[in-house]
Amino acid sequence: MDKLASQSIRNLRFPLCVAIVMVHSNISIYNEFAAQNPIVNIFSDFFIIKICFSAVALFFFISGYLFFHEGKFNRDIFKKKMHNRIYSLLIPYILWNAICLVTIFFLQQLIPNFNLLVHKQISDFSISDFFMAFWNLQEISGISSDQMGPLVDQFWFIQCLLVYSLLTPIIYFCIKQLGILFIIILVILSMSGFIPNVPGFKIVYLYYFCLGAYFSLTKHHWYISSHRNISFIFGTFIAIYIILHMTHCPYLEFLNETILILGILNLVSYFTKDRKTTPLSIYLSNASFFVFAIHRYFTSIALNITSHIVFYYSWSVILCFMAITFFSVVSSLIVYGFMDKYTHRLLLILNGKRIKDST
Q: Cα separation of 327 and 53, whole Å?
């Protein structure tokens, strides 16, 4: 992997993580007064759902790109990659969900009928319930409205990455044999609805993971040299976005999202080129996974406090949304800094060894 791609990915990690926090800070979902404001709905649909949520697709793209960044693949590389992901994905996945499970258990002892996330008392859990708390909450309660995935709901992303990593020998073979045709097939399968979404496997995000893998294995670069070309990419994205609202063509949705993530990659690469990496950017990049893992504790507090506020102006809703995001990110960074100073080894484990960058 060349230096520019490596630095661009490092510089992207924290902003993408903040974008995920923004998605989870969407007050219009929890506040009826905010939800009734048409300007807020436009802001939510475009900025939060379209722009910020693209961070998920971009994270999958980067993960696929990094998995195959050597441009080759064999049994020894696969073993090494899977060994690394035990520490960077599996152990943090288990620990963060276990922490959440213990937290809810103690809250249920203090607050009668407390059912946040889990519509069942943990003291009544069977062995299979404990297992499903780490895999699929719907199987515990039987309530279809419960989240499909682990207790720490944002960790569905890690859940999918673990499954996709196991599938990389198949992915490598398909890309080598079929090339871009394999990527097109994934788009068609995603749109067909033939393959249902299940815990650990979302065909839509497998497409982005494989697209990143395709760029690595074919040694294609995502960045271009001209800022005019970058402007053209974002102009195309806006044009297709407008067409989408008129036609609702699902295939255009894939094209639009792909153009957006390539535009973001190019934009970051453009501003990264010929610039030195600062200690602050390295620190924030290292803290990104921790912020991703812990921020929902803080967004939940802030959203509960603001859920009943009466908003009369759209700007006040947007300001509240930004305040919730700021509070959640800063609070997460404060906890990260405290642990970095006093419990560094524990932080290292919870952070998946991301204090020292690994691919």
A: 19
